[in-house]
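To whoever picks this up:

The parser on our side crashed when reading a file containing two proteins. I've narrowed it down to the boundary between the first structure block and the second sequence. Both blocks are reproduced below exactly, byte for byte. First block:
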Amino acid sequence: MAKLSVLARNAKRQKMYAKYAKKREELKAAGDFEALQKLPKNSSPSRLKNRCVATGRGRGFLRDFGLSRIKFRELANEGDIPGVRKSSW
């Protein structure tokens, strides 16, 4: 499990990104890059980090499922992810 402070920081960035997304698009379309730089740093989409919804792990993230590779394997072996099963050939 990731530290709660790291998860809270990422949640704060997601909220700020959602808040300024529309304004950011308008400024980009207008070409006003000076005003774009004056927006908060945490409102930038590049500062967001994909994290596992179950554990908060930042590495080994599978976008299709929103889980880390470790948690994905656990749930897949238990049969909790529909349409996923262990392969054999």
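<<boundary where parser fails>>
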Amino acid sequence: MIVELRDAVVPTCGGKAGALGALVRAGLPVPDGFAVPLDVHRAAARQGADRSVPPRAGDDAPESLPLPTGLVEALAGGLRALGDVPVAVRSSAMGEDTAEASAAGQHESVLAVSGVDDVVLAVRACWASLDSERAAAYRDAARGAPSAGMAVLVQRLVDAEVSGVMFTAADPRGETRIEASWGLGPSVVGGVVTPDAYRVAADGAVTRTLGDKRTRLDRVGGELVTSAVAHTRRHALDDSTLRALVALGRRIATLLGRPQDVEWALAGGTLWVLQARPVTAAPPPPAAAVPTATGGVLTGTPGSAGTVTGPARVVRGATDFHRVRPGDVLVCPYTDPAWTPLLRIVAGVVTETGGVLSHAAIVARELRIPAVLGVTDATTRVDDGVHLTVDGAAGTVTPRVT
């Protein structure tokens, strides 16, 4: 009914749990946990399709899949083995975290979950996300395979002081790219902050770009709390931690056989690996120099290569989604994964915050949509409807002069 993480493999436990299981077996620092395998979700789906099966206790939501017999007891036992600590409950679908499609951010993750009742709810949320609008839109746009089942990963939550993403080097002479910010990882992967960016060459030389890390996300008791950061002008990582990250990334890439997109966390001086998946779409190289903003040209970070011109559609939240039309250039504070359906129709993306290793930037590159990230105050500096030229390799956004 559950599988210890060290025994998890892709065919039974999906991409995310399978990759982490391999790292655990190799002795790498991965938080303890277990997986609810694919077969449990498939059994629940079959049971839900059988109208002759009466609902089980706890199935109070009519749209919920029924809970297979023994699942609650198995989850309770798994949590006891972890010490009944707060956990992260994350998707591990078939077809997710593959070399062809990352499905970055498209399925559910629930952090700071405590107690078996809430873990059951989080497992159900992961199951339901397999067929959510955003996941279906991603599979359609990426021409991915139909959904084939959802395993769920349950791990001890790391209360990160610093967290981020690392793209390991593409070859022995290549550079490692790292983004980092304060607190838990959703700030970085969700593009909510513009993180610090580091490029570490094969010889160890480091190029640093300080990010505007204005907020952080932390667990406070059983809640996730966003707070303001006073020390935005300080780098999140020192040289020794960068060296340790790069060395860890090399081990992961060697073990898994190709360059990896790694989510990591730093807590109490210890680095933890939270996820490892193949790099599906490498970011464009940094612009040779940050262009000077002249003649109304806005500048940001190159996020996804390509050049496109289209009418700006300023979107500040879900209530604006209906205004977006095919061929528009999406101008927004940041792109939450729930915005994936918009990426099927827009011609380009401009964000106010976010890094090149965020989920939205990865999906934009997979879908070959030009993107410029971290354009300060873009939603107020760009007039809705004005035609923009977005150069995702140069990191420029140019209003068309009429």
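After patching the parser it read the second block fine. The longest strand covers residues 270-278. Residues 51-63 have pLDDT under 50 and may be disordered.
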